[in-house]
UniProtKB/TrEMBL annotation:
Ranges of residues in domain DAGKc: 13-141
GO molecular-function terms, A-Z: kinase activity
Highest taxon in the source lineage: Bacteria
Pfam families per UniProt: DAGK_cat
InterPro entries, per database record: ATP-NAD_kinase_N, Diacylglycerol_kinase_cat_dom, Lipid_Phosphate_FormReg, NAD/diacylglycerol_kinase_sf
SUPFAM superfamilies attached to this UniProt entry: NAD kinase/diacylglycerol kinase-like
Organism: Pelagovum pacificum
Protein name as catalogued: DAGKc domain-containing protein
Database matches in Gene3D superfamilies: 2.60.200.40, Probable inorganic polyphosphate/atp-NAD kinase, domain 1
Length: 312
């Protein structure tokens, strides 16, 4: 399933000067280093690996690489690294590839790319650039999802768990349980979706641009993605017990629209919280932001490499 509404394939594209951007944490262990080295071999002799420190301006780095003649820029990392690079690539007219090296890699998998970086590199080279519009919240680009409520708190707890036990998927699930036990009260929200206003009490609002991720968890909302809109999922959960029930149903793939959550399709979305600031999550990252939260589609396109056998 595609991550967003994809335009028609552009003319045949051949990359001659590939630049692979990885953050300092990618490739430091032996497994990732071998994966990156194998991918670089596939991309060819003209390829260079560029290390990016998240403290640096990624837009400036991307601009410098493009000015130097890069005709394909590839992210090497998880969804957070890919999101940051994509934000800098929007509107440049230069294609981008996504080399999966993270824990979940929803964006790359949604494009039909292999989770094996060497094979993904081959798919990128043989693929073609497609133009997509990406989601934005308060000016921040996101590729998969953005959310308010319990999920950003889970991410905060997950970072703590990862630092102690390592970046294992089991630890990610443990952080969910710990956050649920600490849950106190739901959010009070005013939601304006394409001009239709409602008030909600909920523990979670999940704004998706990834049909793959929705399908992965058995959630509805794929038509909204096909319509180049946001799939807005509002959890019918106001208590800790509600959250555990919802989580269990997600695991068992018995979650149901109308009972466990409501789906809203919206091209523009404004969410106001009762508190002046709230924790916002976007593609695995998070930060404290002032309300209201304004969701829009990017005005300019991102050119993304789709494999030949990728989503329609």
């Amino acid at each position: 399933m595609a991550n967003a509404g994809l335009a028609e394939t552009t003319d045949h594209f051949t990359a001659r000067k590939v630049r692979v951007i990885a953050n300092p944490g990618s490739g430091r262990n032996s497994r990732d280093k071998e994966a990156i080295d194998a991918a670089l071999d596939v991309f060819g002799a003209e390829t260079e690996l560029v290390r990016w420190d998240p403290k640096e301006d990624i837009a400036e780095l991307v601009r410098r690489l493009i000015d130097d003649g890069a005709d394909l820029i590839v992210s090497a990392g998880g969804d957070g690294t890919t999101m940051a690079i994509a934000g800098a690539m929007v509107g440049t007219g230069v294609p981008m590839g996504a080399l999966p090296l993270g824990t979940f890699n929803y964006f790359a998998r949604g494009l039909g790319l292999s989770e094996e970086p060497e094979e993904a590199a081959r798919q990128i080279l043989k693929g073609a650039p497609h133009a997509i519009r990406v989601g934005m919240v308060n000016g921040q680009v996101f590729l998969n999802n953005a959310s308010l409520g319990i999920y950003p708190s889970i991410l905060r707890e997950r970072e703590t768990v990862y630092k102690r036990w390592g970046r294992l998927r089991l630890m990610a699930h443990w952080s969910v349980a710990k956050t649920f036990f600490r849950f106190q009260r739901p959010m009070h929200l005013e939601i304006d979706a394409d001009g239709k206003k409602t008030t909600q009490r909920t523990a979670l609002v999940f704004v998706s641009r990834s049909a793959f991720q929705l399908e992965r968890f058995g959630l509805e909302g794929e038509p909204a993605i096909s319509h180049d809109a946001f799939a807005v999922l509002v959890a019918n959960a106001e208590s800790r017990l509600d959250l555990f029930k919802l989580s269990w149903r997600l695991v068992m793939r018995t979650v149901r629209s109308g009972r466990d959550y409501d789906v809203i399709e919206a091209k523009t979305l404004d969410i106001a919280t009762r508190r002046r600031k709230a924790l916002l999550a976007f593609d695995g990252e998070k930060r404290l932001e002032e309300s209201p939260f304004n969701f829009r589609m990017s005005d300019e396109d991102l050119l993304i490499m789709i494999p030949e056998e990728g989503p329609a």
